[in-house]
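Attaching the record inline, Q. Sequence:
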Amino acid sequence: MPKISRAAIALCAVLSVLLLFACAGQGVQNKGAVPNSSELKRVTSPNGQLDAVLLVYMYGPAAGGGVDSNVYIVRKGAPVNMKDGREVFSADPMTGGELTWKRDHLLEIHYDVANIHKFRNVWELDEVENVASAEGDFGVEIRLMPLSDSSALTPNGAFRNPY
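Structure, as predicted:
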């Protein structure tokens, strides 16, 4: 992809997120989080024990930076630890991000356009707290649910414009 196209996509992503925060008022600051990060969505599991959290992190200058969209799983109401490797999903750019618990141990990540650079399909509670082996493993399966059959590339192989 030419450098100009990447810069244009990054600029559009940054401006879109800023516009979203300014107009919709949905950007809730994640207290104690990394500067330039905002919690967009927090959805509680059906059993009320866990939250799936969608955070965005803006990095770099507007013309050359971007917006990472990251999904984390934490205990209900707990703050997100943005330590590298704790996310179960990361994309830049991403549009149409939605989090849906299908059941206690199954989370779906819905999106329209996404250039996914990190994803794992299993998360376990011992990643965020010490749990005794007697408690058993508390795992969550994560599924990706694109809204169409071409979320990153057009049918001819070109990058799909996210905005």
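The CA atoms of residues 59 and 65 lie 5 Å apart. Residues 3-146 form one domain.

More tomorrow.
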